[in-house]
Design goal:
It contains 14 helices and 27 strands. The chain is an alpha/beta fold.
Length: 547
């Protein structure tokens, strides 16, 4: 096969790599994705898609398809504690869905989370990638790579034929999982705890509908002398997972989980010695808390499990990786397409690493609550915060954010104030009579929002963007004559602006800049702001002034 040159090479076709491929395609950036396996995952693995990830999939037009794929799990909210599934029920904890916001936060997002197993999610992402013309090459393995000041040269191999060829890319994105070979080749260390516990994830087929009998659960904790662990549904019918812990320090090992052993173990979990069981797949996993020291080395970037490993409690792992990709891909596009300085790419690590560290700690606190002791490297133990804060309440501080005079509060409280560095607040609006969310506006381009009387901001911003050579969408928000009708009268309060104020939201939906009150727009001022958001230093510091 002929050698080729592309903007971005992605390694790994899990949810993070596939999402990155889609995000780049939406930015009209060509990429090639290589995956050493012959297809998507057959094992369910992660299931929880949280609010923030669903917002992103909503922008890609995938929200309803993902929700429909996991529809069989929509009622799976209880926690059961049993001796066996067929035997004595110890107690039942009724829970609101972990992926649905509390009633008082219904105005926080236009969507809610859902349950969709990874082996259902990945084929949906693959189908959308093919629809957009993305190049996905399964059964193709990265053999080696070298980078220089202009790009990355990679050697890849088609496993089925043994044929090798080279790919030259501007950038390499490693989404190759927790044991990332690329991370090891770069010599990047992981910092955190050793394995807190070891588990076998047993994916099996058995008809358990009569035993569940409307006791729909997301997790069933099995506690008997012969079997202990967590049973979880995949389709609430005949597909299930059982997570069994093993103890290497006591002589047990993952290799003990042979098909025959797993069949007998599942029967002890269910409490029926003659249950018809088919073992579909068994995978090892360990509960650990580790974050990479670096997320970037020159032209190579790492995302997802390649840079953070966390316990499954809270369902944060997959979603955190999706947010990594979202943060990085718009920056790659901005640099590749020309308007941004390469310095913008360094803000990926600056912004994401603290968030990933915080999320990993929160996942650890939740597994600690289930009886697994967690040691942290911090002198002060972190405080457990609500899932909604972990999901959408974090903030970014980097050169790609221009702070104003309002301080972002500590992360134990959800802040939707519109401060620079925070996710832009959700507000319902109308455009041409159709109800949309502000979240729906933040996709490919920077967006300027201002009041319905403030035409000068929009005109000046468009002229400035044209002069700098990049795309900027502008909207006046307010009454019936505005570009976007503020049906509930909330937008100015939500974004913290007075009449004459304005905000610029980055393509990843985070507020980059805000001026709260009236000031006369000027192209010089807005050029300084936009150059700062793109990390083009120039004479920005001299022209920004007070905002």
């Amino acid at each position: 096969m002929c050698n080729e040159t592309i903007p971005v090479l992605i390694v790994g076709a899990g949810p993070v790599g596939l999402t990155a491929s889609l995000l780049l395609a939406h930015q009209e950036i060509r990429s090639v994705l290589v995956e050493r396996h012959s297809g998507t995952s057959i094992h369910p693995r992660a299931k929880g898609i949280n609010i923030r990830s669903m917002e992103l999939f909503r922008l890609m037009g995938l929200e309803e398809r993902i929700r429909a794929a996991g529809n069989e799990l929509v009622d799976s909210t209880n926690w059961l504690f049993v001796e066996t599934l067929a035997g004595r029920e110890i107690r039942r904890v009724s829970r609101r869905s972990l992926f649905e916001p509390p009633p008082q936060l219904e105005q926080v997002s236009p969507t809610i989370g859902t349950l969709c197993a990874q082996n259902q999610l990945e084929p949906l992402l693959v189908a959308e990638a093919h629809k957009l013309g993305c190049s996905l090459r399964f059964d193709t393995e990265l053999i080696s790579f070298e980078q220089d000041e202009h790009g990355v040269s990679a050697s890849v191999k088609e496993n089925s034929t043994g044929a090798q060829y080279s790919i030259r890319a501007n950038y390499l994105l490693a989404a190759d999982g927790a044991s990332s070979r690329i991370r090891h080749l770069l010599g990047i260390s992981m910092r955190g705890t050793e394995a807190l516990s070891y588990h076998a994830n047993i994916y099996f087929r058995a008809d358990l509908r009569e035993l569940v009998h409307e006791r729909w659960f997301s997790m069933c904790f099995v506690q008997n002398p012969e079997a202990r662990g967590v049973l979880a549904p995949v389709n609430n019918s005949d597909l299930w997972q059982f997570h069994a812990q093993y103890h290497p320090e006591k002589g047990s090992a993952f290799e003990d989980f042979t098909p025959a052993y797993c069949v007998e173990l599942v029967r002890k979990v269910v409490g029926l010695s003659q249950l018809d069981v088919e073992i579909l797949s068994v995978l090892p996993w360990e509960a650990a808390m580790r974050v990479a020291d670096h997320f970037q080395q020159d032209r190579v970037f790492l995302a997802g499990d390649a840079v953070h490993v966390m316990p499954p409690s809270g369902g944060f792992g997959l979603n955190t990786g999706v947010q990594d990709a979202h943060n990085l891909c718009w920056k790659l596009a901005a640099v590749i397409n020309g308007p941004a300085s390469p310095a913008l790419l360094t803000t990926y690590e600056t912004e994401r690493r603290p968030v990933d560290q915080f999320t990993t700690e929160q996942a650890g606190l939740r597994i600690e609550g289930r009886g697994t002791p967690v040691q942290t490297t911090e002198q002060k133990k972190p405080e457990r915060v609500d899932e909604i804060v972990v999901t959408i309440g974090y903030s970014y501080a980097s050169p790609a954010v221009i702070e104003d005079d309002e301080v972002v509060p500590h992360t134990n409280m959800l802040d939707v104030s519109g401060c620079p560095g925070l996710r832009a607040p959700h507000v319902w609006l109308e455009r041409d009579g159709i109800r949309i969310s502000t979240i729906d506006l933040f996709d490919r381009h920077f967006v300027l929002l201002t009041g319905d009387k403030d035409t000068d901001w929009c005109e000046t911003a468009r002229a400035t963007a044209a002069r700098l050579g990049f795309s900027l969408d502008t909207y006046r928000v307010g009454g019936a004559d505005a570009d976007l009708v503020d049906v509930d009268g909330r937008w100015a309060t939500a974004y913290g602006v007075l009449p004459g104020g304005a905000v610029i939201v980055r393509p990843d939906g985070f507020v980059g800049w805000r001026t709260k009150r009236f000031e006369s727009p000027s192209q010089d001022k807005l050029e300084a702001v936009m150059r700062r958001l793109l990390c083009d230093s120039g004479s920005v510091a001299k022209t920004l002034g007070d905002t």
